[in-house]
């Protein structure tokens, strides 16, 4: 959802074609228009502006001295800043904060020709690049852009819980420039071409609306398109045709230059006259991944209605055009507009579903189905069934120049005697392309020409189906494509490359320590020794817990998971050298009820580390990792009564049977073993078995795995006076007499093991 209060309109010629060959009918040729972008850092409270807000007749400020803990407080109030004339503005900040969209209120005033406007609240959107992707590394958080007919001044106010500071806060103003071609954005009907997809609607290309391609980064492709997500830009509906292209350019510039995204968020935009605009570069012919639906950008495309349909009815011609684009695009991939699909969330700010959770969604769904938003508005959302029905009708349209597509079940019967390879053309290739797209092996538009993309898709299908990977399609391949029995090639046994133990990749467990001021250190471990601390970074003081689950994302190196009191869970990827890779990934924001996160290692037996989460009421839950930096979606309650322990310890296997065990320490100082059973359906741990007494004097007990070098898991215990002891494991569920351990962490407030 985007906030746009601007002009955007044109008349649609209802013509549909299969390929994006578009001729421009305006007398003025379109050309790239470079916007003028000005970004300025802002901070603190401007004294004169504060005095004005506190004076009679104004609403005042939220002052920190009057606020209770966590209450919204004005953290930034700028003066009335003079700017070069602009039409688009927004406020952004670095993504290193743990504050969510719901925590931040941003308001702006603009100086327009008639004077200063009232304060407008700019929503903080829940769209953005997929967490963990290259595009997300440099991406910023920020508001939706506000668009004006023209302004020369801006004032900004930001309220946050307890007045917390947003990092690297900036206000960005944009003049998107003008072009003589903007007044006549009318695309003529292109020539048709053979295709099994529905007829393509007329689309105003990026070249036509004047995109400066030097602003964008590289595009990223999904493997297919499984669903379309419908949005609205949430701005005013009082826009006109003449400035439409400039407004699209302004949004594009803000997304790329203000927020640091690779391109404009949406794949397509539609105005209230039913005109369709190409959004992200390449979206007409390829499954380009957008930044429109946090957690669900992969294998989806976003169509945004330009305007605010929370306050106004969406025109019928706009609804019709949205349906045409959705039906056409889904038909390219053999997807029914009225069916459902299963998508796995990648998590992120604003996403309703945590990373790894798989959700069943309509193939044409609304943004509010997956995010905490009203998008696409209360007047457009009820039109979703209409959009699906219309899209299904449009998806049935095929180009009359080609034969009726052959259904999946008839592919072998029709084409089983044909061999297709690079250079082949015709309806057999067209139907092959349609089937590959339907199965998720993206080959672009089904145009009947067997080129490199089709060859790549064929090879990917053959590999997945255990066929001989030749890049050509013969009889046995047609059988597999038709769903018939076929001959499989026995694949070689997979080579399992185990994760490397330790935070520095040396194969030995290490220790992480956090100081009172929030600095994070790691301590390299040798045989029976703890090495000097190595500082990783600062800023870790706001987290409730910082733990290492081992290799969480599958790159063999130990990672870090950090949780906040508000329930956010972040992944920090280790570099295998005692440090972290840039950026972080929000895995979930719903863990507030879990007071203790534990790292048992591989609990489920799939060679991927898992987590355990303990609630204050004593419930212990298994959260299975997917080995790719997220969760599988499997949550299993393992038991109750675990609140009786002051500490639950995850030493790995201490009984010698290869299964991860748990230890519990009671307030009275008893240490108890819960031996793991390895069962994923029955009881996860055996009953309580006492190991020994005398552990009350330690403020923490943890394990790095084998510290002493005998191949058996050991324990390290620390007192409040920083007296440290190692208890060697016997490998039979017990530990021998403790030995003094020299440890350099001093007054470090938190120490945990990395196995």
Cα shape = globular
Helices and strands: which structural class? alpha+beta
Query: Unreliable runs, pLDDT <50, ≥5 residues?
Result: 2-26, 188-194
Main β-sheet, in a few words?
Answer: 9 strands, antiparallel
Gyration radius (Cα, Å) is 29 Å
- The total count of helices amounts to 10
Protein topology:
Layout: E1 16-17, E2 23-24, E3 36-41, H1 47-54, E4 72-77, E5 81-93, E6 105-112, E7 115-116, E8 120-122, H2 134-137, E9 141-142, E10 146-161, E11 170-175, E12 187-188, E13 200-201, H3 206-209, E14 227-232, H4 244-258, E15 268-270, E16 276-278, E17 300-305, H5 316-331, E18 340-344, E19 358-362, E20 364-366, H6 384-395, H7 411-415, H8 427-438, H9 452-464, H10 475-482, E21 510-514, E22 520-523, E23 525-526, E24 529-530, E25 534-537, E26 545-550, E27 559-563, E28 569-572, E29 585-588, E30 594-601, E31 610-615, E32 620-625, E33 631-639, E34 647-652, E35 661-665, E36 671-674, E37 689-692, E38 698-702, E39 715-719, E40 724-727, E41 739-740, E42 750-754
Parallel strand pairs: 14-17, 14-20, 15-17
Antiparallel strand pairs: 1-13, 2-12, 3-11, 4-10, 5-9, 5-10, 5-11, 6-7, 6-8, 6-10, 15-16, 18-19, 21-22, 21-42, 22-25, 23-24, 26-27, 27-28, 28-29, 30-31, 31-32, 32-33, 34-35, 35-36, 36-37, 38-39, 39-40, 40-41
